Every structure is written in structure tokens, then in C-alpha cells.
Amino acid sequence: MIQPTHIQNLLSQMATTTGNKEINATLPMLLRILDKKGADRYLVQLGKLIIETQSNKELQIGTNYWANVKQSKDGLLISDLIKQPKMLENLAHAKLKLSSNDLKELLNETHKNGNTLESVFKEFLLERLPLATSKQEFLELSNLLVALQNGVFSMVIQEDNGKESLVQLKKQVEFLEFYSIFHHLGEINGIVSLNEESSVCLRLCVMSEKVKKILENRLRELQGFEEIRIDVGQNEPLWDLESFEPSYILNLKG
């Protein structure tokens, strides 16, 4: 049977991965395009470093990318650029954030009392909604409620290192679907399901071979899963936090 501990352990392991300095050195780096200097040359920001580099791929000014960066005889070599969704940058401005412990307690409460995650979180959001102190907070809470009406639990998590990540869960008839986005691991889609022997299996889709290799090493001893498979591909959120129609709030309690 799929239990909340399966998701807890998985998210905890991925969060620990992004907080490990040794592993971070091998993860894709965050890169921002500052300006275009020529036909295929760009001014980019890499951490605190601002450099000019070449790219055969058209890049968007003001946009953040994940990139592989390594030192070569000609300087820094930047490759495999993947555009970051705007949503990642906006997580820092979220009015409602849970800590990792908050999420753990929420999942434990649903398991202990026999309530669904959706009902517990909906009650929490409805209590917060009248207390919203700004239009942004009101719309954000409303969006999370509409997501719940569509079967998606969506929450911004603030990790111990101060970085924000996003977790989305959707329970289907025979499996649990989830989406997460981390600053260095990028977007990850996954499915937790039972095989014919009723053993719990995990399937992940990550953004690059580098992330796949790192997670394969980190998740090898992850308890609770009989089988783990990791593929590389494009991922999409279960609920788009960027395209909210305010008129939906008229049906929040429907």
C-alpha cells in the first residue's frame, strides 16, 4: 500500500541532495542571460561571476537557465542549457510556505486520522483565506484551493538552506502522481504505484542525464520502494500556478 512515508522519504532525499555541497558541485548551475553582445555572444551571470560567452543556441535576455559548466583550456565551457520555468523564480515571492517539517506533519496527520490530504489542506487554506493581508496573498490562497478542487495538492516548501521548492501531488485510482521543482535538480515528474506483487514502485522523469546519474546514486538505498526507474525528458507541473483566473474563486466551496 502506498503510504505518506513513501513521499516523505523521497522528498527528503531529494532535498538533502540539493543541500549537499559535494554533490552541488556536480549539479547543473544556475545561469542568467544579462545581454547579447553579438550574433552568438552573450553576457551571462554565473553565481557572482559575470562573463561573456558564446552560444550557438538563441538565448533570451533576462531569462534563467540551468547549465553544465566546466573548466577548459579556453576558459569556462558552458553547455546543455535548459530554460528555467518562470515559476521557479516566483517561488521566492510566495506568501504561503511550509517547512519540510510542516509537510511531514501534514502527511502524518492525514495518515493518523484517516483524513485525505486534500480535506486537511483545504480546511487549512479556508481558515487562512479571510486573514489574507494583501490581494496577492488572497489570490495565491484561492489558486491553491482551485488546484485542490482539481485534485492537485500544491505547496511551496522552504528548505533548510533557505531555497524554495515546489511540491504537487495528485492521487489517481491506481497510482500517486507528483511534480516537484528544485533550484539545482530542476523539474521532476514522478509516479508511485504498485506492481503485480503489490510492491511499491517509483518512476521518475528528470531534466538531464547529469541529474539522472546523481539521483540514481542517491536513491539507490531509498527505503520503501521495491523498484526505482529514472528517465530523462520534459516535465510539466500538475497545476500551473502562473495562469490563475480570479473568477474561479466564486466556486471555491462548490
Task: Annotate the secondary structure layout.
Elements: H1 4-18, H2 21-24, E1 29-36, E2 41-46, E3 49-54, E4 64-72, E5 75-83, H3 86-90, E6 97-99, H4 100-113, H5 117-128, H6 135-149, E7 152-158, E8 164-171, E9 175-182, E10 186-194, E11 200-206, H7 209-218, E12 227-232
Parallel strand pairs: 6-7, 11-12
Antiparallel strand pairs: 1-2, 1-4, 2-3, 4-5, 7-8, 8-9, 9-10, 10-11
Can you put this structure into words, describing what you see?
The chain is built from seven helices and twelve strands. The chain is α+β, with helices and mostly antiparallel strands and 254 residues long. The strands form two sheets. It has a seven-stranded mixed beta sheet. The mean pLDDT is 83.
Percent range of helical residues: 25-40%
Mean pLDDT: 83
Uncertain runs are: none
Multimerization status: single chain
Distance between the termini: 31 Å
- H/E element sequence: HHEEEEEHEHHHEEEEEHE
| Rg value | 20 Å
Largest sheet: 7 strands, mixed
Structural class: alpha+beta
> What is the overall number of helices?
7
> What percent strand?
25-35%
The number of domains is 2
Shape: globular
Which strand order do you get reading across the main beta sheet?
A: 6-7-8-9-10-11-12
How many β-strands, per DSSP?
A: 12
